Amino acid sequence: MSGYRLATGGRVDRTAPAQFSFDGQSYEGLAGDTLASALIANGVAVFGRSFKYHRPRGVLGSGSEEPNALVSVDRGPGRFTPNLRATNVEVHDRLTAVSQNRWPSLKTDFGAINDRLGMFLPAGFYNKTFMWPRSFWDKLYEPAIRRMAGLGEAPTEIDPDIYAATYAHCDLLIIGAGPAGIDAALEAAGTNKRIVLIDDQNELGGGALADPSLFEWLERSVKALVDAPNLTILTRTTAFGYYHDNFIGAVQRLTDHLPDGGNAAREKLWRIRAGEVILAQGAIERPLVFEGNDTPGVMLASAARVFANRYGVAVGRSVALMASHDSGWHDVFALAKAGEGITAILDIREAVDDVLLKQAADIGVAVKLGHSVIGVSGRHGVKAIEIARNDGTGKMLVSCDALLMAGGWTPSVHLWSQSKGSLRWRDDLGAYVPDKPNEKVRCVGACAGTWNFGSGLVIDELPTPKDQARIKAFVDFQNDVTAKDIRLAVREGFRSIEHIKRYTTNGMATDQGKTSNLNGLQIASQAMARPVTDIGLTTFRPPYTPQTFGALAGHAKDALFQPTRKTNIDGWAEENGAVFELVAQWRRARYFPKAGEDMHAAVNRECLAVRERLGIFDASTLGKIEVVGPDAAEFLNRMYTNPWKALEPGRCRYGLLLKEDGFITDDGVSARLAPDRFHLTTTTGGAARVLNMMEDYLQTEWPDLNVWLTSTTEQYAVIALQGPNARKLLQPLVQGIDLSAEAFPHMAIREGTICGIPTRLFRVSFTGELGFEINVPTAHGRALWERIMAEGAQFGITPYGTEAMHVLRAEKGYIIVGQDTDGTVTPYDAGLDWAVGKKKPDFVGRRSLARPDIVASGRKQLVGLLTDDPNVVLEEGAQIVADPNQPIPMKMIGHVTSSYWSATLGRSIALAFVAGGQGRMGETLHIPMPGKTHTAKVGGMVFYDPEGTRLNV
Amino acid sequence: MSDTLVRTEPVPTVPFAGGGVTISRAAPMVRYSIRARQPQALETLFNARFPHKIGATEGGIACLGPDEWLLRAGEGTAIPMSEGLPLAVTDISERAVCLIVEGARAAEVLMSGCPLDLELFAAGRATRTLYETVEIILIRETDDCFHVEVWRSFAPWLWTALTTAATH
Amino acid sequence: MILIHCPYCDEKRPEIEFSYGGEAHIARPPDPSAQSDNEWESYLFIRANPRGRHNERWRHIHGCGRFFNAVRDTVSDKFETTYKAGEPRQ
């Protein structure tokens, strides 16, 4: 191919040159060019190497259907975008593009050996060959295949670009701004509808951009659309997916076409809800299938016309046409008019319209009817074509430097099909067209199968006197699928096109078969001697064209990736060196290391401070639900395992919540504030789940109860004060509450003020020490914390984090739902029999506690474990066996759920689930861990202060 | 001791202005979740009109569900309690903060992450909905002014999201 | 993202405001302790899981907060109707 810039014509700005580079070489293009048009204008023919055979490939099409000319655009570190179609990349100053899938260079590519070995790489080659040994897959086959059969490389740096996203709503969405889409928009512009018109090109017009006779109409129409107040126009925007209820995903490219995008968003994700959709996506020309049809310089006839009339670029100096459809004739007439040299017109048909013959004669082009191309010479560009009559006789060579293919048209029904609209086969078009809609949508123009490009003959593969089993006639250019691959699949027994597709990979490349699906279908149909409609049609799936991950993520990136919930006191923890962990969406202080301390040292210090003096802990993340109404106690009595009706106002109770299947789902201490008002707490991670579950029962099972639930998790900041000095510290700060042990016992709640702020003060403990949890309106949390820290200095007050909290509660045998339980644990399994109201006739989950599996013996039960070597801290999750000498695989009878070093006890402690555990007290069990199998004795779960004397002071 | 403690707020005190909107944090206020089977009982107790239709507002009261109202009023407003009555009044003053989104692009900025058609969401309407994954209560005060109630711990994220969207 | 008509709000709202709640019209037995093991198993675990028309529960969790029922076609994912909790099966 020897393309060049035509002296006149096209919509490019000849006064605005743009310097760009491709594979390190500098070129000049014009404003309005695509990378494809600019490179063709510079005489470049080879754009990349093919996926499997590494054959040199040029440009096939002119838009988003392009399967061959995939390039990577490099905009700097982290801004490397692979697999872009050169036909869609707009040229601008400093554009840096590189070709793909070649090593070491585009001209000399070692992988091209695959092309010579083609007979050894048939359809299903990978599936058949790289099957065993299994261990070779990860280390050898997969990396090797990846290196050889790759597309562009993904960048490894973090993408520094900014992406935007939005929802939008309209009454009418028009997708595609070719003549049909523009007509639809003009017609609707006069109504009061809110209209959005989107198109993937940089300017409106679609096919009209390649037809100078329509330029004046186009200018007039675009002006009318721009002036319409009810119309939003989105150019450079690809509608990539059609979802339920007329919900359309589209990506708008905002800055890639600019030399410097600055700090503006690169792309914007549009999530559009439309009352009605008009699809005007046009049609895509079909290539013809013959040997050598992938040679650089062989392209779609319509594409050559686009290059000439839109970009002012000739694809060659002597252009030949291979047609089975009238449209190709019109295209070469247009090329001739633009000044390109036309060498020959071949048409497989024995007869065509006289008008075409006359026009061909007028421009002096040789016409050969009933002929086909049977070969192409030239590896890096067309030099000549070999042709023959359809019966195989009359072989001859025709010199040319470009060969155009006109195989008919395929309506772009991608979005229509994604909307689940049905399709109808039209024999005359050899294509599926939209039939019955599934949404409020209609197709107009070429994508509906209506066009005025003339008629044609539908054919699977051009006839050839050569052995079809020995030639490469490409169907899917991007995945290197040939006609013989499809016929092989049929011979091997594949009958459904879905299976043929997956076996041959036809249509599975990034272009999703825009130019290959229908040809593949025809070939399979012929091979099976069954009509096309019998073998099905593959499913169209989003995205219509590949989109960047950045665009799909939209603004959900970096700081906006997902909310990190912070308590009111979090800022203090951060300023004081806390190490954080995420618990659900909450960020919680895990420990507060002092200089030189590791986690172990910090946690030991924090634990001892609580036991010996005073600890302070941010418990704000605990879920809270306020339960209010005359039936509040009745409701809680039905929800929780234990009795609630007799709980006096001012007292607290541990509540254990089961699901209806009898398994523990949550727990927490709750308080009765008044006869009709309870303050519930839930686990941090369970807050939303518990509220939803309670609402479910309330609304759907017991709608007669007069009780309402309100989440108050974020209404209160909660400061836990734990340790022997807790009361002493609180005494001077609290007003209106008698803190004495007699007036304010363990598991009680009082309302008053602290430092002048209203508080709900709980006397509760998750540490086993004298403890209070101070609830204050959230905004005051941090100031109160700081006041308590200041007042607490005299008592050696020590902030502690979730890690120390875990150790302290484990020393007391308090479980953590979700750590010591896993959704299959009953209260009996967890040793919480005392929390089950045996006399209650019903509560959620009660009936299940009598299920056969639940009452069966041998269930895993929670127990304490003490290692024989007190210095060994078992791994959480470690499996437990009864006999370490049994053959592998051993029978595992349980696992460790919680395991810590207890500074208080000077030894390790653990909780574990063990089959029949409560009957194994005193038994020695074995815990295999890396390096050694440890031994431990089964015991009770309470390791510290089993009488609870430290609580009740 | 009767000193008071300073408040710590989750979003900046200085409003954001740019891109055709201003985004600011409303002053602290009292908020109550009020629940009852019928609004009539509440109207008697509060001596105020309650909106009867979901999504409607009346004074500072928004009807969010068939048995749910959100009352917002200035700090210090006394609220009758519900003890003994078949209804529920719960203090949620500090649960949320209110971001005020004002200006010609207010609706557009909110639609960057809110899936509702805010062009058709008339002034005076209120609803619970989402901004991306974060639950909000959206109240359209006027054509160009929205109140966005959001739970405190989500407020910094929402502040960043809205101020970022305003620049796009 | 589908639109779901909330029978309480009486308008179509985007799917992300809703949460799914499984098959509808499976009432909790008034006296669970009177249930045989088989009856209780059936209540807990046995669901119709039809191909096609399905009565199911949804909650307008990020809206009015109410649970309601719907008839949805599990093949086409289209909602035939939605109705308030407590109303008869449709």
Descriptive labels:
A: 953 residues; seven-stranded mixed sheet; 29% strand; elongated; B: alpha+beta; six-stranded antiparallel sheet; 11 strands
What does this structure look like?
The complex is a heterotrimer of chains A (953), B (168) and C (90). With 953 residues, chain A is α+β, with helices and mostly antiparallel strands. In chain A, strands 9, 10, 11, 12, 13, 14 and 28 form a seven-stranded mixed sheet that branches. A seven-stranded mixed sheet of chain A has the order 40-41-42-43-39-33-44. In chain A, strand 2 (13-22) and strand 3 (25-31) form a beta hairpin. In chain A, helix 7 runs parallel beside helix 8. In chain A, 54% of the residues are buried. The mean pLDDT of chain A is 94. The longest helix of chain B is centred in the C-terminal third of the chain and has 13 residues, at 155-167. Chain B starts with 15 loop residues before the first strand and ends with a helix. The model of chain B has no long low-confidence stretch (mean pLDDT 95). Chain B is 16% helix and 37% strand. The radius of gyration of chain B is 17 Å and the shape is globular. Chain C contains one helix and six strands; from the N terminus they run βββαβββ. In chain C, strand 4 and strand 5 form a beta hairpin. Chain C is globular and about 40 Å long. Chains in contact: A-B, A-C, B-C. Chains A and B meet through strand 9, strand 14, strand 38 and helix 20 of A and strand 7 and helix 3 of B.
